[in-house]
Design a protein that fits this description.
Strand order of the largest sheet: 3-2-1-4-7-8
Largest sheet: 6 strands, parallel
Oligomer: single chain
Low-confidence stretches: none
CATH class of the largest domain: Alpha Beta
Number of helices: 13
Number of strands: 11
Mean pLDDT: 96
CATH architecture of the largest domain: 3-Layer(aba) Sandwich
Radius of gyration: 20 Å
Strand content: 5-15%
Bound molecules: nicotinamide-adenine-dinucleotide
CATH superfamily of the largest domain: NAD(P)-binding Rossmann-like Domain
CATH topology of the largest domain: Rossmann fold
């Protein structure tokens, strides 16, 4: 298939790379030149704009930081037309011709409201647009083992599944547009709570004389075991390959976790839900970000508990 891929960050780059490896013709676009060059060296084509990347595409995939970027890309920004408009003009759909319009999949984590707004604008122009946020981190993206959580029509989901299978291990249909984001936001709120709780427990143990590796092994085999501790240990030197071992470079940025916890907070406000643990985690990650750690991996929340050591 001809696939346009927009957004080659920590996640988008390995995802696009797996599509190339699966034999798709992939054309990429990112604002960062070096990211496009890396994909080009792996066999992808590159374009000078999102509009150019999507010309002739069967599928358009975007992987951008937040809702403002996704709305800007599809709906337009600062008088520049969005992709829905440019694709509409380049792929006319008439009752007597087969629908040559690309399927659009946004894998970014954004609010359900933003996802529904863009999906509705896409539907008005005759496009199928799916929210398909992912879980699994950079490791999962590189290994082609992501979990996709899809919101949108059943037909769109069936159409998207073979493409998503090339980048993921589990592909769920969560419900209508926005449902993918609701599930993803609940998951990430839990992850934020688990990571900060794990960092807190490790710091407490170390302050009381424990070796962090020994303590981690004990908790992994006990009732405190969880995804953050077992697969993403935040204490430097405990787990090979974890972001903690490379000064928290790369991975899932603190700023993005703070954004997701903010989305959980908005969701809770809108539905009159109480999320005391999620609110606490949001404040911790927001404080950590304000202290200059926004571009570090979110497991660097460990540093917050080690201040003054
Ligand atoms: P990132 O900041 O590393 O990458 C985002 C990329 O988008 C950058 O390369 C940036 O240049 C590009 N970009 C921004 N605006 C653009 C535009 N208008 N046109 C083209 N490119 C544009 O972010 P990431 O870690 O790859 O995360 C992407 C999304 O996936 C976020 O919504 C995040 O919450 C979610 N997510 C991340 C992880 C993770 O572990 N990093 C895991 C699951 C979900």
């Amino acid at each position: 298939m001809n696939i346009a891929f927009i957004g080659l960050g920590n996640m988008g780059s390995p995802m696009a790379s797996n599509l190339v490896k699966a034999g798709h013709r992939v054309t990429v676009f990112d604002l960062v030149e070096s990211a496009m060059q890396a994909l080009e060296s792996e066999g992808a084509g590159r374009a000078d704009s999102a509009e150019a990347a999507t010309q002739g595409a069967d599928v358009v995939i975007s992987m951008l930081p937040a809702g403002v970027h996704v709305k800007g890309l599809y709906l337009g920004r600062d008088d520049a037309p969005g992709l829905l408009e440019t694709l509409d003009a380049s792929t006319p759909s008439t009752p007597n011709t087969p629908n040559t319009r690309p399927l659009i999949i946004d894998a970014s984590t954004i609010s359900p409201e933003d996802a529904r707004t863009v999906a509705a604008a896409a539907a008005e122009r005759g496009f199928t647009w799916l929210d398909a946020p992912v879980s699994g981190g950079v490791g999962g993206a590189k290994a082609g083992a992501l979990t996709f959580i899809v919101g949108g029509s059943a037909e769109g989901f069936e159409q998207a599944k073979p493409v998503l299978d090339a980048m993921g291990k589990n592909v769920f249909h969560a419900g209508d547009n926005g449902a993918g984001q609701v599930a993803k936001i609940c998951n990430n709120m839990l992850l934020g709570i688990l990571m900060s709780g794990t960092a807190e427990a490790l710091a407490l143990g170390v302050k009381n004389g424990m070796d962090p590796a020994v303590l981690s092994e004990i908790m992994k085999q006990s009732s405190g075991g969880n995804w953050a501790l077992n697969g993403y240990n935040p204490w430097p030197g405990v787990m090979e390959g974890a972001a903690a071992g490379r000064d928290y470079e790369g991975g899932f940025l603190t700023d993005l976790m703070a954004k997701d916890l903010g989305l959980a907070w908005e969701l809770a406000l809108g539905s009159k839900s109480t999320v005391p643990m999620g609110s606490q985690a949001r404040n911790l990650f927001a404080l950590h970000s304000a202290q200059g750690n926004g571009r570090l991996d979110f497991s660097s929340i460990q540093k917050l508990y080690r201040e003054g050591e």
